[in-house]
Design a protein that fits this description.
It is globular, with a radius of gyration of 20 Å. The chain is built from 16 helices and no strands. The longest helix is centred in the last third of the chain and has 30 residues. 80% of the residues lie in helices and 0% in strands. It has 406 residues and is mostly helical. It has one domain: Growth Hormone, Chain: A.
C-alpha cells in the first residue's frame, strides 16, 4: 500500500482499481480490432476509420463529461459513463455487421470520458505539490491494464473473437459495484454552486479559443495537440503496422502491448514522483517532447520486432512523463471549479488528433512504406520543439518552475 499516498488512501486505491479495470477492457479490444473487423470484410481503411470513430466520439464526449462533473460531482458522472461503456462492449460482442461494429465504437468512445473524470477526482484529493504523483497513479493503472488486457484478450479470443468484449463488460460491472458501494464523492456541493454562476470553461469552440488565449493554458494545449498528433500516428496504426509490415499475429501484437504496459507502469507508477522531485514540470515537458521525436525516428528505422522492442522504451517513457505532467500543470493553471472542464478539453484535443492520425498514418504506411509514419510524426514534433523550449524552459510560467521539493 506504500505505492499509494497516505492521505485519502482509500479513494486513491478505488480510483486506481476503477481505472485499472476500465483499461483492461480497453486493452483486450485493441489488438483484436483489425481481426474482428476483417470478419466483416473490412479493409485497412475501414479499420482505420473504426479507430477514428472512437476518437471522434471521445472528442465530443470528454469535455461534456468533464464539465458535467464540475456541476453535479465526479461520482454520478463516473457511474453514467461506466454504465455506458458496458453497453458499448456488449454491442461490440453482439455486432453482426460492420455498421453495428462502428456504432459500438462510437458509443464506447463517447462514454470513455470517465478517464477525464477520474483525473479530475485525483486533482480534488491532492494538493498542487503531489498532483503529478497522484495523476501518475492513473497512468500506472493504464499501464497495468495494458499489461493484462491485451494478453487476456488474445487468450480469450481462442474461444470466440467476441468473448473479450463480453469479459470487458463483466469487468465494468465490477467497476459499477465499487463506485456504487465504496467510492465517496470528492467534489462537495458548495464548490459546485460557483459553476452555475461562473461562465463554464470549455463549453464550446468559442471557449476553446478562450482557453488557448490564456497565458499558460494556451501553450500547454498547443503542445498537447502536436505531441498527441505525433504519438497518435504511432498508436492508431500500430496494430496494422505490426500485422502487415512485421507479419505479427494477434497474440504477438498483444504481447508487445503488454510490454508497453510494463514500461508505462514503471514510468508513471514508480519514476514520475522521483522525476518531479529532480526536474521542474516545464523541463519534463520539453525533454519528453524531444525524447518522443527521437523515438519516432527510431520507429521509422525499425526492421524487426527486436528493434521495435528497443524503440518502445523511450517512446513509453516520453509518453508517460508528458501525459502525466501536462495534466498536472493544467489542473494548477485554472480555477478549482474549472479543472474537470479543462482536463476534458485536454482529452478532447488528444481525441481530435486520433481522428486525424488513422487516415494519415494508414495512408503513409500503405503508400510509402513502414518508414513513413514515424518520419512524419517526428517532423510534427520538430515544429513544436523551439516553441516548447521558449515556453517551458527559457521563459517558463511560475507554475512550470515548480517541483515536489518546493
Amino acid at each position: 500500500m506504500a505505492f499509494f499516498p497516505k492521505d485519502n488512501r482509500k479513494q486513491f486505491v478505488l480510483i486506481f482499481i476503477i481505472a485499472f479495470l476500465n483499461l483492461i477492457g480497453f486493452g483486450m479490444i485493441i489488438p483484436l480490432l483489425p481481426h474482428y473487423a476483417r470478419t466483416f470484410h473490412a479493409t485497412i481503411v475501414d479499420t482505420g476509420l473504426l479507430v477514428a470513430f472512437y476518437a471522434a466520439a471521445q472528442f465530443i464526449g470528454s469535455p461534456i463529461w468533464g464539465r458535467l462533473s464540475d456541476k453535479i460531482g465526479r461520482r454520478p458522472v463516473l457511474i453514467i459513463t461506466i454504465a455506458g461503456s458496458i453497453a458499448g462492449y456488449i454491442l461490440f460482442g453482439l455486432a453482426g455487421s460492420l455498421w453495428l461494429l462502428f456504432f459500438s465504437r462510437l458509443l464506447s468512445g463517447f462514454m470513455s470520458g470517465n478517464i477525464t473524470v477520474a483525473q479530475a477526482y485525483i486533482t480534488d484529493i491532492t494538493d498542487a505539490k503531489n498532483r503529478a504523483k497522484g495523476l501518475g497513479l492513473i497512468g500506472a493503472a493504464f499501464g497495468l491494464g495494458f499489461i493484462i488486457g491485451p494478453g487476456m484478450g488474445g487468450l480469450l479470443s481462442v474461444y470466440g473473437i467476441e468473448i473479450p468484449a463480453y469479459t470487458a463488460a463483466v469487468l465494468n460491472f465490477f467497476n459499477l459495484f465499487f463506485l456504487a458501494k465504496m467510492l465517496p464523492e470528492s467534489y462537495p456541493p458548495e464548490k459546485r454552486i460557483s459553476v452555475r454562476v461562473r461562465r463554464r470553461f470549455g463549453k464550446s469552440l468559442v471557449e476553446l479559443r478562450e482557453a488557448l488565449s490564456r497565458p499558460l493554458v494556451g501553450p500547454l494545449l498547443y503542445n498537447r495537440f502536436f505531441f498527441s498528433l505525433a504519438f497518435a500516428i504511432f498508436t492508431t496504426v500500430f496494430a496494422i503496422y505490426a500485422e502487415y509490415e512485421l507479419k505479427l499475429n494477434a497474440r504477438l501484437i498483444a504481447y508487445l502491448l503488454t510490454y508497453v504496459g510494463i514500461l508505462m507502469v514503471l514510468v508513471q507508477g514508480v519514476f514520475i514522483g522521483r522525476l518531479t522531485r529532480i526536474f521542474t514540470e516545464g523541463a519534463l515537458l520539453f525533454y519528453s517532447i524531444v525524447m518522443m521525436a527521437f523515438a519516432l525516428v527510431g520507429w521509422a528505422l525499425v526492421q524487426d520486432v527486436i528493434m521495435l522492442a528497443v524503440v518502445l522504451m523511450p517512446l513509453a517513457l516520453a509518453s508517460g512523463v508528458f501525459n502525466t505532467v501536462i495534466n498536472s500543470s493544467l489542473s494548477k493553471a485554472v480555477l478549482e471549479e474549472e479543472v474537470g472542464g479543462t482536463l476534458g478539453l485536454s482529452m478532447a484535443i488528444d481525441s481530435f488528433t486520433r481522428i486525424l492520425a488513422p487516415s494519415a498514418g494508414s495512408y503513409l504506411l500503405s503508400r510509402l512504406g513502414r518508414w513513413a509514419p514515424g518520419t512524419a510524426a517526428a517532423i510534427v514534433l520538430c515544429f513544436i520543439i523551439p516553441y516548447a523550449w521558449q515556453r517551458f524552459v527559457a521563459r517558463p510560467h511560475p507554475v512550470l518552475q515548480s517541483n515536489l521539493e518546493e
